[in-house]
Design brief:
The chain is mostly helical. It is built from ten helices and no strands. The protein has helices spanning about 5-20, 30-70, 90-110, 115-140, 150-170, 180-185, 190-200, 205-215, 225-255, 260-285. The protein starts with a helix and ends with a helix.
Length: about 280
């Protein structure tokens, strides 16, 4: 159900780049990106809901493992499992990375829509803060995810992407030049693409956590687990579509051939918005 969502995360982000490469004063792509931005926010809410499910599962699994060690043992990496007001480590890392992608999207959206340089500086500062926080969360998660298949590989790749993008964004965050923002946001695109790829590959770790949590103390799975599996499978398909769209849109941006992509992006944004709203209605039933 979420197939269009993650395709547009990349495709429409880079539609903005295409408009920007043709000149900051151009209105090409603005309408399409405004609609995309609205649709992205609806889709982002759905992803955030899935992470809430993952957080519950991870906490249950983490507490089970911590208590098996006995009350005489305290491991610092287990701390987040005992504090319900914070995400457990793996969930915190993934959520932080998604927030970074959203902050990147918001900055590009503002740039494409002609937001003043001073306001853009605040958005880029927010992006820089999200990058730093996501990198820190990812490092913490390393100590708590040993034994979870796929987790360490995902965290390593996410860390690499965040570490490459971080200094670039931090360096430009204090400037007040639209051209500086444009150049640096474009420069960080490969890192954002790599970050999304890392999250896609992290689906193995996510499902392991949910599966073990759902089946803990039982001999079989549950109806809830099947729903979780379907939701995660849909997310993987979405990210696969996104990675393809990101590459195509990036190539269009570099060639400044935005008109070729415009109609398709507009159609996809409309469909994304409709699908996101339908998913929200279905979950409310």
């Amino acid at each position: 159900m979420r197939t269009w969502g993650w395709r547009l995360v990349g495709g429409c982000v880079l539609a903005a780049l295409a408009a920007l490469l043709q000149g900051c004063g151009s209105s090409k792509g603005v309408a399409e990106f405004q609609l995309y931005s609205q649709s992205f926010n609806l889709q982002y809410e759905q992803g955030d809901t899935f992470l809430n499910t993952l957080a519950v599962a991870e906490r249950k699994l983490g507490l089970h493992r911590a208590r098996r060690r006995g009350s005489a043992v305290f491991v610092a990496a287990d701390a987040a499992y005992f504090v319900e007001s914070v995400d457990p480590p793996l969930t915190a890392s993934i959520r932080g990375s998604l927030k970074t992608l959203k902050a990147y999207n918001d900055a590009l959206s503002a740039l494409a829509n002609g937001e003043a340089a001073a306001a853009l500086s605040n958005r880029v500062s927010t992006l820089a803060g999200n990058l730093i926080a996501a990198a820190a969360s990812t490092q913490v998660a390393f100590g708590a995810t040993a034994g979870i298949p796929g987790a360490q590989a995902m965290l390593s790749k996410a860390t690499e992407a965040l570490n490459v993008a971080g200094p670039v964004i931090t360096a430009v965050a204090t400037r007040a030049s639209r051209e500086s923002f444009r150049q640096q946001l474009i420069e960080t695109y490969p890192s954002m693409q790599a970050l999304l790829q890392a999250l896609r590959e992290g689906s193995t770790a996510m499902y392991y956590v949910v599966h073990v949590s759902r089946t803990l103390g039982t001999s079989t799975g549950s109806q809830e687990l099947e729903k979780d599996r379907e939701a995660l499978a849909g997310w993987v398909v979405l990210m696969d579509k996104t990675l393809i769209a990101m590459r195509i849109a990036y190539e269009a941006a570099i060639s400044q051939n935005f008109e070729v992509e415009s109609a398709g992006l507009l159609e996809a944004s409309i469909e994304l918005k409709g699908l996101a709203e339908q998913i929200k209605r279905d979950r409310a039933k």
